[in-house]
Amino acid sequence: MIEAISFSVVVPVFNEEKVLPESYRRLTAVMEGLGEPYEIIFVNDGSSDRTMSILDELCERDRHIRIIDFAKNFGHQTAITAGMDYADGKAVVVIDADLQDPPELIPQMIQCWREGYDVVYGKRKERKGETFFKKMSAALFYRLMRKMTEVDIPVDTGDFRLIDRRVCDALKSIKERNRYIRGIISWLGFRQIGVEFDREERFAGETKYPLKKMLKFAFDAITSFSFKPLKLSSYLGLTLSFCSLIYLLFVIWQKLFTGNTVAGWASSMVISLFFNGVVLMMLGIAGEYIGRIYDETKGRPLYVVRRVRNFAVEKDCRGR
User: Fold this and answer.
1) Per-residue pLDDT tens over the stretch 237-279
2) 68: which DSSP letter?
3) Which residues contact 213 (CB under 8 A, 6 or more apart)?
4) Is 267 exposed, middle or buried (0-12, 13-18, 19+ CB in 10 A)?
5) Closest-CA residue to 38 (of 314, 312, 308)
6) Which helix H or strand E contains 70, and what residues bound it?
7) Do residues 109 and 150 make contact, with C-beta atoms less than 8 angstroms apart?
8) b vs e for 8-20, b when ≥16 Cβ sit within 10 Å of the residue's Cβ?
9) Chain segment 9-59, per-residue pLDDT in tens
10) What is the largest CA-CA distance in the chain?
């Protein structure tokens, strides 16, 4: 008889060979201390280092370890999605492997879950080891998201959270490709509560979210939950058109009544370049939304799995 799983821990990994042994040790110590059936699902997101071989070794000696091995790199949010798709627990915990989010907080999350909360998210009080720029940009991003969307997305939170089986099943019904998991979970509703903690420095290795990826992630989040950039483009276009009309009337008045117009191309070029830049910016914003529509209509699977290991029940490894 297959043992029912109480808790599933989903851990997306990408080139984490330096941190995996310690991450496994701390996660296992926490989950063993609960005294209930559990599984730890590592999702290998196309790693090119020894991550996969380390995971295979862990699978050999620990029946609680499961592996989902992607055919290539599909991204952090997609890896989380795959882990949730495969998880069997009554509650599912999502945590990164870098140990910035402490596994030791999981029992407190479970206690909140037992009290009736469907989503328990980690709320960062302090972000250790991060630059002033990253702290300020992160704070600005979370507050901008709250202003731009009608979804109540908690500020200063990441993907470190526990969700109930009902939330996990509801999440599976959402097929969109450009995913912002914490936003989708908030959009689903359910009863939520935050648990505060101090975010530590990365245990080892390098961050997998440099500035370029952070900007893409932020834009994906905004375009997934808000049409306000499109509205802003319209408002900006109308405002500039009105200003242009006022300026045109002023030029005509100056020509007819003062004869004091100044010949020259510099001012004309500055105005022309400014308006052209605004038009291109608005077209770019519209293009981003159109590109996402095109991406959704192609119907390609969200991810493709090369193989899975240690699952008690045979899983479909083709992806979705």
Assistant:
1) 667 666 666 766 666 666 666 666 555 544 565 566 566 666 7
2) E
3) none
4) exposed
5) 312
6) strand 65-70
7) no
8) bbbbbbbbbbbbb
9) 999 999 888 889 999 999 999 999 998 999 999 999 988 899 999 999 999
10) 96
